[in-house]
Amino acid sequence: MDKARECQKHGKAFGNMGKKAVCLISGGIDSAVSTFIVKDKGYEIYALSFDYGQHHSKELSCAEHIAKAADAQRHIIFPLELHRFGGSALVDDLSPIENHDINDIGRTIPSTYVPARNTVFLSIGLAHAETLDADAVVIGATAADYAGYPDCRPEYIQAYQQMADLATKRGVEGRSVTIDAPVLALSKAEIIRTGLKLNVPFASTWSCYRGQQQACGTCDSCLLRLKGFKEANAKDPIQYAALPDWY
Amino acid sequence: MDKARECQKHGKAFGNMGKKAVCLISGGIDSAVSTFIVKDKGYEIYALSFDYGQHHSKELSCAEHIAKAADAQRHIIFPLELHRFGGSALVDDLSPIENHDINDIGRTIPSTYVPARNTVFLSIGLAHAETLDADAVVIGATAADYAGYPDCRPEYIQAYQQMADLATKRGVEGRSVTIDAPVLALSKAEIIRTGLKLNVPFASTWSCYRGQQQACGTCDSCLLRLKGFKEANAKDPIQYAALPDWY
User: Fold this and answer.
1) How near does any CA of chain B get to the CA of A135, in Å?
2) Across the interface, do B150 and A167 touch by the CB < 8 Å criterion?
């Protein structure tokens, strides 16, 4: 079967056949849906995850499931000792994860903010993209739900793109490595609806900030996820230790 | 002795007392002189080096000497497995280091280019700066000698600054983390002259791309260093296995 037919069969855009995308996969919903959006466009997927001393290392086994489900050519789990710097509840043993009311989430920079995290992740993704001669680095940043994180805003992604164009061999040659944040402008409900259409394996995603056996159902991340499923009129397939009364 | 007097005694600018700078120290000349320039301005030095599988790991012991000589408050050697991606002679066992004529260096992107290296290093420096609430990240990028590296150009540093201002908590609060490349516009000879004035321990710096007992005296980096010392009318205190006839 030739490539054009193979694309048609899978309903993929032929224009992107053979193009490579480095997809940053955290194990959460946003990066999983972002990966499947790019896969649906016909890109070859090169999965990249980071082992950065996060409490919720369950994310990494979920990331492996997602990469397999997305037919990734390769999945690199990159060790990154960010905990040497401390400075966030997600990597610092001393700070507990705080609970907030669902309506207060995103108003200030939360204690779960990892310093310059997206900048570090995108930069290592960019290095990987250069060695692969890949066309894009894909990140699951979302502006809607995480207003409190400065590095999830559209103007940040734009500035990163401009910097990347000046930083790289490809940029100098006029073949930009696209910094693609396909769910940036979507609400959590829209992201979940998109993922359901694309058969994202939500049962193999992990959002909880607390690395317990089951998702806690009380941290910011669990609450945003549950709110998203509720608004998308869909059932979250994972198990929770507790559920909020509004769900 | 109060802080103002202590500053005067050491000839330091009082305005910067208590300010912190994360200095990326490679073990080479450019980052060593950059560190001493910032130290001379009165900043507290937080040294950061990367163990990224480089052939010339001798750089790292030099980086330790330089950090000590600069009275660094702390020196973190951050492991970074960039060699997982391959793609450069400096981290890839298969590619030999090429020799070039001194006049050809900088005309094209050399095989020693490490993909997105400065972007990765600055980003981890930025993460460290955020956790320390530091005022600057200092990099020894030089535009003059390394015209072949896209991420050593002034427009790259400017674009990185704009991105960093949008990426960070400090940036959001209007207290920019300065991306400082103090030797960016200097020639190698000017960098060496500046370093001699500031008592940079050049005997504890390493520039050679080949990780042998002595510097080779034939790779691009050795040639640029030797040319710099020659133009600065100074003697390079390190030993070379061979010297070019023009030195």
Assistant:
1) 14
2) yes
Q: How far apart are CA B49 and CA A111, in angstroms?
A: 27
Instruction: Please give the structure tokens belonging to residue B30.
Output: 């450019």
| Contact across the interface for B159 and A168, Cβ inside 8 Å | no
When computed from its CA atoms, the radius of gyration of chain B, rounded to whole angstroms, is: 18
Does B191 contact A at CB distance below 8 Å? no
Residue of chain A with shortest Cα separation from B109: A169
- B190 to each of B34, B95, B151, B229, how far by Cα in Å? 12, 32, 21, 9
Is residue A42 within 8 A of residue A4, CB to CB? The reply is: no
**Residue carrying the six token digits 């609060």:** B173
Tens digits of per-residue pLDDT, B199-233?
A: 999 999 999 988 788 999 998 889 999 999 999 99
Q: Is the pLDDT of residue A129 over 50?
A: yes
CA within 13 Å, CB half, B11: 4
| Confidence grade of residue A209 (pLDDT, cut at 50, 70, 90) | confident
CATH of B3-207, one of 3.40.50.80, 3.40.50.620, 2.40.128.190, 1.10.10.410: 3.40.50.620
Sort out which chain B residues have CB atoms less than 8 A from A81's CB and list them: 78-79
At residue A97, the pLDDT reads 61
Longest dimension (CA), chain B: 57
What is the residue extent of each domain of chain A? 3-206
B240 and chain A in contact, CB less than 8 A: no
CA distance A149 to chain B (A): 8
ipTM of this complex: 0.87
Percent of chain B past pLDDT 70, that is, above it, reads 81
Chain A, 38-77: which have a CB under 8 Å from a chain B CB? 76
B24 near B138, Cβ under 8 Å? yes
Nearest CA in chain A to B77: A84
The whole-angstrom separation of Cα A103 and Cα B117 is: 41
Looking up tokens 């549950």, which residue turns up? Answer: A226
Tally the C-alpha atoms within 13 A of residue A15's C-alpha that lie toward its C-beta: 3
Class (C level, CATH) for A3-206? alpha beta
Q: Taking Cα atoms as reference points, which of B28, B64, B25 lies closest to residue B215?
A: B28
Residues of chain B found within 8 Å of residue A80, distances taken between Cβ atoms: 80
